[in-house]
């Protein structure tokens, strides 16, 4: 028997990490301070999980300060994984709103199907409603998801070319039904040294990005990322450069 490959957030995770992780995205709400001509952004992401509080059940805690905090109860079976939780989410007008969340995945390692729901108790509306399908093979991972309350179709592909030097290629197609807009992104990565990883990506909107990640010991990593917008109608053609430092205990 093979364990269920994870909760809904893991559907398409490999392609998302290669194409987006480390390029300077911040959580939806984060600390921002401007000192004359210098900007400072700061957020804190803390999570922990306790397995087998009773057979098959575990509990998890996650905090992204000052964006959200959540406590979850998780059930993991050979062919199913379900999590239900409660917490708070930041609101620009009311401080923090209570939420109730539910997500689950059914299937096995080759194929799995999942859904993710987040209900805002104060607004009495669903903040999130996503669904997805994932296919996994020895060196290929493919997924199709419906995000943004089923408004965005995302298809992703991830292929490991050479695991010895971490050579990987990935592609992602995003289509928004509400505005009838499609973006295709493709990228690759390779470890030029055991502790140095290089990534690059390009999309059909004319944006080209590259990233160099240097690992120091096992706890500390430093990433330098840059992006240039070559779209003919873009007014923001000045290259963007970012620096990220990650410390993992």
From TrEMBL:
Family from the record: Belongs to the eukaryotic mitochondrial porin (TC 1.B.8.1) family.
GO cellular component, one term: mitochondrial outer membrane
CDD domains tied to this protein: Porin3_VDAC
UniProt xrefs under PANTHER family: PORIN_VOLTAGE-DEPENDENT ANION-SELECTIVE CHANNEL PROTEIN, VOLTAGE-DEPENDENT ANION-SELECTIVE CHANNEL
Molecular function, one GO term: voltage-gated monoatomic anion channel activity
Protein name: Uncharacterized protein
């Amino acid at each position: 028997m093979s364990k269920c490959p994870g909760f809904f957030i893991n559907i398409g995770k490999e392609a998302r990490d290669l194409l987006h992780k480390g390029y300077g995205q911040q959580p939806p709400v984060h600390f921002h301070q401007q000192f004359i001509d210098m900007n400072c952004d700061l957020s804190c992401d803390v999570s922990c999980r306790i397995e087998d509080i009773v057979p098959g059940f575990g509990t998890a805690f996650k905090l992204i300060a000052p964006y959200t905090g959540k406590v979850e109860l998780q059930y993991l079976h050979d062919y199913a994984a379900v999590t239900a939780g409660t917490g708070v989410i930041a609101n620009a007008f009311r401080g923090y709103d209570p939420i109730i969340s539910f997500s689950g995945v059914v299937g096995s390692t080759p194929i799995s199907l999942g859904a993710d729901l987040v209900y805002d108790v104060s607004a009495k509306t669903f903040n999130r409603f996503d669904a997805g399908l994932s296919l996994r093979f020895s060196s290929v991972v493919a997924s199709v998801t419906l995000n943004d309350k089923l408004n965005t179709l995302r298809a992703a592909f991830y292929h490991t070319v050479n695991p010895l030097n971490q050579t990987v290629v990935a592609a992602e197609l995003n289509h928004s039904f509400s505005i009838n807009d499609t973006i295709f992104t493709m990228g690759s990565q390779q470890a030029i040294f055991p502790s140095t990883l290089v990534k690059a990506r390009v999309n059909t909107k004319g944006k080209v990005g590259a990233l160099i990640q240097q690992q120091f010991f096992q706890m500390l990593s430093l990433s330098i990322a840059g992006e240039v917008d070559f779209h003919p109608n873009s007014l923001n053609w000045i290259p963007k450069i970012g620096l990220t430092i990650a410390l993992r205990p």
